[in-house]
Amino acid sequence: MSELEIIGVDMSTFVRSVRLACHEKGVDYDLTFNYAGMEDLRKEPHLALHPFGRIPVMRHDGFVLCEASAICRYIDDSFNGPALVPGERRQAAIMEQWISSNADYVAPRLTRNYILKYAFPRTEDGKPDMELINAALPTVRDTLNTLNTALEDGPYFLGETPYIADFFLLPIIDYVAAMPEGPELLGAAPNVARFRDAFSKRESYSATLPDMLKQAA
Ligand SMILES: N[C@@H](CCC(=O)N[C@@H](CS)C(=O)NCC(=O)O)C(=O)O
């Protein structure tokens, strides 16, 4: 049993962000999910851990914390290992900018409005609603184009070293790559593809790859 517990499932993008932080920092952790299903997230006892009924949640020595960004920061501040935030204040601010952009623009546009429409269609026949997906695609392309510009110097947001903002982007891009339009979308955003290629060579990448993507590989 490790002293650090991450409550979540491996397919979750935000849980993977936190797991990437653990691996990059060199911190042992247990990934746990002692519930019958995701519907249990909206009930006690989980609501006592996360008032909005989501994952990830972290437990460390009796201390409970939710929200992936806060957890990544806590891990960085609490353990020895490579810095997960740039030391230079403007670089650190740019990193925050991309974490915030991920929450408000990238994840809603790429994960909620696109990836999840394939992964969990919630349609009567269980098939993806192609009308919704096709309607989302222009914004998906625009968002990838914005990320492509941000990653111009690359391969990561702040150059040669991945930091917390990169841990938020990678899980989403990995799913985009696995979508039917993935090769075309990433072909049009070569810096985003380079970001993923660079990350895929790191131990943290394979250690956190969701089972669902292992099967697709
Ligand atoms: N703002 C939260 C977002 C967490 C989130 O949306 N988690 C998703 C999984 S990626 C979740 O809990 N989904 C389960 C559900 O909504 O039932 C964070 O940064 O941790």
Question: Could you characterize what this model shows?
Answer:
The chain is α+β, with helices and mostly antiparallel strands and 217 residues long. It has two domains: 75 residues, Glutaredoxin; 120 residues, Glutathione S-transferase Yfyf (Class Pi), Chain A, domain 2 (Up-down Bundle), CATH 1.20.1050.10. Helices cover 57% and strands 7% of the residues. It has ten helices and four strands. A four-stranded mixed β-sheet has the order 2-1-3-4, covered by helices on one side. α1 links the parallel β1 and β2. The longest helix is centred in the middle third of the chain and has 31 residues. It is globular. The mean pLDDT is 97.
Short description:
The chain is an alpha+beta fold. 57% of the residues lie in helices and 7% in strands. The protein has two domains: 4-78, Glutaredoxin (3-Layer(aba) Sandwich); 89-208, Up-down Bundle (Glutathione S-transferase Yfyf (Class Pi), Chain A, domain 2).
